[in-house]
Protein 1
Amino acid sequence: MSSDRGIIATGVTVPRLRLDGAEIEAAWGTSAPVEQAAVPTADEDSFTMAVAAARDAIESSRLVSNDVEHLAVATTTPPLEEEEFAPRMVSALGLDTDSTVNTATQSTVAGADALLSAARADGPSLAVVSDAPAGDPAEVGQRVGAGAAAFLFAADGSVILTDTATRSRDAPGIRFRESSTETVEGLEITSYERDIIRDLVATSVDALDVTSDDVTGVSLHQPTGDIPHRIAGSLPYDAETISRGTLVDEIGDAGAATPALGLLAAINASEPTSQTVAGFFGSGATATALTFETRDPLITDVDEALTDGVEISYAKALRERGTIGETEVAGGGAHVSLPSWQRSIPQRYRLEAGQCPACGAVAFPPEGACPDCHERVQFDTVSLPRTGEIVAVTVIGQGGAPPEFVEFQRRDGPFAVAIVEVTASDGTARFPVQMTDCDPEAVSVGDRVAGEFRKIYSVEGVTRYGLKFTPE
Amino acid sequence: MTDAYLIGAGQSDFGSFPSESYRSLFDNAFDEAVESVDSEFDSDRIDEAFLGTLGVGGRQLGLSGPAVTEHLGLHGIPTTRVENACAASGYALRQAVMAVRSGMADVALAGGYEVMTDMSGDHTKWWLGVSGETEWERLSGTTFAGVYAQMASAYMREYDATREDLSRVAVKNHANGAQNPHAQLGFECTLEDAMNAPDVAAPLNLYHCCPTTDGASAALIASEEVAYELSDTPIRVAGAGAASGRVGLFQRDSLTSIPASESAADRAYEEADIQPGDLDFAEVHDCFAIAELAAYEDLGFCDRGEAAQLLRDGTTDPDGEIPVNTSGGLKSKGHPIGATGTGQAVEAFAQLRGEAHVQVDGASVGLTHNVGGSGGGATVHVFEQADGGAR
């Protein structure tokens, strides 16, 4: 680890939907464990949020995506219990396919593992902590939130990891998920939990080589807003310093991602030479503490991500999450096989088009004869921009969606589908898109839109991802 | 090369018929077609058959053509099933015309059939829209109505047309269809009804969309010699045009027209040696209201952007300059996908023999226009009255 290796850029993503604590209280008649929770839209998951945060980090850096040599991802809720999603992320981000990947999962301490993995790797490396745990709706479970934070490490870092410490102890039952369920559980033996969390997190933080007076912000394990302050009871940090790294009351309990997002917020509040401390915890139990020194200011738009929200009802939150069961449309008629979908990944993920060497026309997708001169040519690869203009649009109302989209529509409601025109090297290209994160009725011809990486649909247990579009 | 003639045409009722199969529906259409021939017609005279169907629902997806002709007792004749989505039987008709013109057949049967209303909601969802561009268009979440709605959004942005103009298509076609005993939705509607229906895919509402339909249709195409032997008023197929286009709307240069329709029409007019102004009536492919507006322009009834004005002026009403969809069109008569193309020929046959339910006075030249998908394929046929009597 060269001494000046560190974080050169960061990224953040928080879903746009918000469930206010008052909604939880109205639903259950009992006080809400968090003030507000971010709710993933039906087409968002840990993977899509990770891609968005990572793009944010790369785009705000001096690097381009294929400079990145290592990708470390952390989540407690990968899209599937077994199967790598990091390679799909490499593809979605357009990283070099020789990049090494590392996935940390299994507990909320995973975020620290990803940060350490990227910090210790050679060459530009991305750590992405993304999470969207599912709660039990019968236990005021909608306190769960979602979000993602990305950290791009390279030489000449603005924020340098200066020390880390880990403590472990045989202590199960605090936060766990049994096989074949999506719901996070805990035995809720209050004193047992608090003792273990406080003991492990506080002792690991205490073991860091850092002068407490230099610390301007601390992000600690934060399933609820009071826990960091309880942990800090045995640490030399005041409530304000702890609060700078605590945002669970704004996004809900986003599993592994909450302390990582808190770290971003705390780094925002730091100044050159000051330190920022993070204390991750995972039931089982492990705590890992990290401390970062700020050399140059590094600002992430955390506040903007937190405030750009749309409030929804408790019922809508349950629908978006798919808590109230899922549906599958039986039968078949125009099934697109997985191999044929996979062939189109460069287009679905990155809008790779073809330019005709004979006449210069842009073909999307780049296959078959040239759309203009109709010659069978070998297209030159060109990348289309992810922003464009709507040239035709309609709204697919409830009940009218193609079978692949029935589940999404059931959860998210009517959606707009449009034809988008983008300006390519020498001309224009058009492609059909599904709109998301917007009022479908408000979308019209002439609107400017931008691509977002989302779940498109799932069949046969395999989720297919690609770009959807949102108003710019 | 002999000319090809339409000597008989018939259709089943269009609607929802749980007690009928695609084979029995075709039996009904065939019987009506045979009945319509002036002289006694012996079905043994049919040399070959071309039958259009998309195969909605799967059912007998392979070899359904032979299944139909064998069921009908046309034992052993070569039968080809034609698939070009909603233009399947427009293309079947074209095949029959080609078979007769080439001399390989003296009498060819063209027809189509579809059963669309006997499936569960789940199965219907999978099958509607299989004629859109699958990998990109459908997988952007678009339905078939959605693609035409996108066309409408672009058209209404570019030209002077409103939802009221779209609704005028419904009012006119329902008024015509109300006179057609075979029509599925044979009732009149007011402009208010058509304006206030629930949206299917904005700006298209329920009255801007054709229904799903069970039905069959059949047309008998004969050589000049046979036509004059069997028919007192043979109808000549004066022009047969067809063309293909990119299957996805997003793949085409124009979002407001169907280039395949334009090319097919050009070819048909050229072969028939007529101008659009020579037409006395037209049956056009109004699967969605915007498609009828686009058809007026693609077929040359008016310049680009002027289609709505034709509707407002009543130019395409039965007593107008160029009556369109006197049968009720797809909107009111129904749209059993594979049966629509030859179904249009049934109306052309009736008009040119003076037997239509909504008869255009003095009709002697007419056109049928059949589109596959949102414009991946189109056929245009020009029919005209030929001199009667023996030659």
Note: The longest helix of chain B spans residues 22-36.
Protein 2
Amino acid sequence: MSETSFPQKVDWSNTVATRRRGRRHAADRRLQIIGISAIALAVALLATLIVSLTLSGYRAFVQTMITVDFPISTENVSAEDPAAGNYRAVVRDALANLFPGVTDPGEQRALGQLLTNNTQFMVRDAVVRDPSVVGGALRLTIPAADPIDQLNKGVIDRHLPEDQRRVSNRQIEWYDELKAEGRISTPFNIGLFLNADSRFPEIAGLAGAIVGSFYALLVCLVISFPVGIAAAVYLEEFAPINRWTDLIEVNINNLAAVPSIVFGLLGLAVFLNAFGLPRSAPLVGGMVLALMTLPTIIIVTRAALKAVPPSIRQAALAVGASRHQAVIHHVLPLAMPGVLTGTIIGLARALGETAPLLLIGMNAFITSPPGGLLDASTALPTQIFIWADSPERGFVARTSAGILVLLGFLIVMNGLAVFLRQRFERKW
Amino acid sequence: MAGYAFLIIILATTAAYVVGRSTGTRIRATHGAKMHSLPGQHGAFVAAWVGVPALIFVLLWLVLQGTVIDRLLIASLPASMTDGANVQLLVSEIKNVTAGRIFQEPSPEIVAAAERLAHWEAIARWAMIVVVLALTVVALVVTRGMLSVRFRARNNFERILTGLMVFCSVVAIITTIGIVASLLFEASRFFGKVPVAEFLFGLNWEPQIPLREDQIAGLGAFGAIPVFTGTLLIATVAMLVATPIGLLTAIYLVEYADDRVRAAVKPILEVLAGIPTVVYGFFAVLTVAPVMRQFGGALGVDVSPNSALAAGVVMGVMVIPFISSLSDDALNAVPGALRDGSLALGATRSETMIKVLLPAALPGIMGGVLLGVSRAIGETMIVVMAAGLIATLTANPLDAVTTVTVQIVTLLVGDTEFDSPKTLAAFALGLVLFFATLTLNVLALGIVRKYREKYD
């Protein structure tokens, strides 16, 4: 028999114990404060990112426009063939009418630089649309050139010495005159969504990139959605458990973590070089993105199938359905909300993916939206990358605006996924 | 033309379903309940046999057509033209002439070859349509003839379905094989020109070799050590940012936060995870790098405009959500009994966390950190936009360094010849990248799995 000894009653309220307890609680609070500051730091970083992008990008959503009356004289433009007119002269005459005092050729050139470089083509297109103006005058609202746009938006400081800014003193005077005449306006920049890419920031837009991204995502969806669901259904519902299916499973998990650029290398080596598909095509981009999205869709579909209780399958089998019927008629429809949610999230990731698209050439300079799956085009993220690399000042704002548009699409897609999850998901 | 082929397949499959179903309905009307399968199953059986072979045929045709026509074209050229000359250039010239893009007056042989090519391509287009039509009609007639009252349409259709599903699940394997094969193939061509030892252990990376004879460029050195160290430097900076923030966030969320805070913070972390990397890259260029440069200037330190620090810090922000969510999972997976026991003994929450939960969750957290490292190494856009292009062997995060992914992109973007070591080097780098991230992932998943088994 061992002797049981009881410890003496301890006085926990003495000063040593109190101080020790104080130290331990202080350590507890310290950890809590460190944790809060870590979260605050992460939130602050996110806020900085969004604020800095918004601050640099919001200006690109409006565009400085100059209203100009173009005299369409019959000596420059013939009514029979309005497309072949001398529109360079038309623009020159219009500017001469606005500022009759400017006669020096160098100054006239500087005056022409107030308007975007493509002004003559815009006037031509307007005349071709409505040939009845030949012989009369045409009032058009033309985008201002990038430096004037920046000046109007306050990005260029007019108080700087002349050699440190991209607009001359003369140009500022002309700008002020135009402003006084009420010819300067800054409406919503609809061109950002309707124009394709351009070398000139004032008329560069996202239309080509949005259409290209849409085509690529369409291809991605058409391939990865059926293939992903079929693979997941097989692995979850039909596959025998053996080394072979184990290999497939490990393989899918690893594929989900392969860097995206490696998929770009695959697309370059196989789709472009071996199969001979065209460079920069949304079809190839979509195929590469589909291979990338496939593991994600398989994994979420399997999770959704797993969440359907076995009693559903057993009930179907018990009334005489085959295994295929049980899955197709009962399990898959019940798992569909989860599958759709996962698919949308996978597509959202594919929409933001840039690196593989760079390798298959979707960062080309293309000035018209693609007409089909095989036309060269860009995608939203690669367009952002191209603009980010462009030196013109106006492209900084365009890049940020492009990013805001991309984030807008992502928010809509993820919002849809959240809505689907909350609206249709069932808890068993 | 391929569009028409797919349209034909879709229409034919729909028609086949309707035909099979109506045949089934007629059989049922005469024989009633003796019938083995439902009319719809007869329709599905016929549709599957009409659609699937035709689809496989068209896809195979599209893949092979280019290669076959190229072979035919090269074989049809007179030996005097293919001798010694660059056959690939010749073929692309002929194709340009066929497409109407004529830069200089082509020789009569080339014009003749171009006409042949145009002729063959027209034949190939129509042949595909004809064969697809024939295939669908034959399949429709044959399978419809098989339908009868005792025909096991359901079992047959389900067998086809299973076959399709097996194929779909093998696509993942095919993708992996495709990645490994293409990387190995191109990398082996590279190692035929540059020795493996020089690539793996050389200290000098200057891949800008002359493409033309008279071009002024470097001599071409392919020692990848500076590229690897650059990658590791940026990844280290990233992990030094991401690990503490991510882990502390997870600790706070698991141990201290109430449900309301959790509901607010988790979506924010998800947003961080969902931001495309090109956005982070632009953020690094637009905001972070200039701030660091000014800060460095104020301290009297020279910070490079595309310093490893700026790229690494932004990459760290990108990795935070991975670390925090995986650490969160690991900490939550620790059995409640351990935490309750510790608290019952009078430990404070921080003592419970540091002395009980963290050690128990360490393998899971390690797995998360390894996955984060793998992300950081494979991340492309942030470094392409914010890191440098020139490979310097340095451990100073204020200098500009380059990474594996940056080099892959710069070597392959733009028009490049596919035989030069310059472009092939990108595939060798890709091979290293693939196996490095694969090893990290396998290791991480292994650790996480082993740890889970211990408590479940």
Note: Chain B has a mean pLDDT of 87.
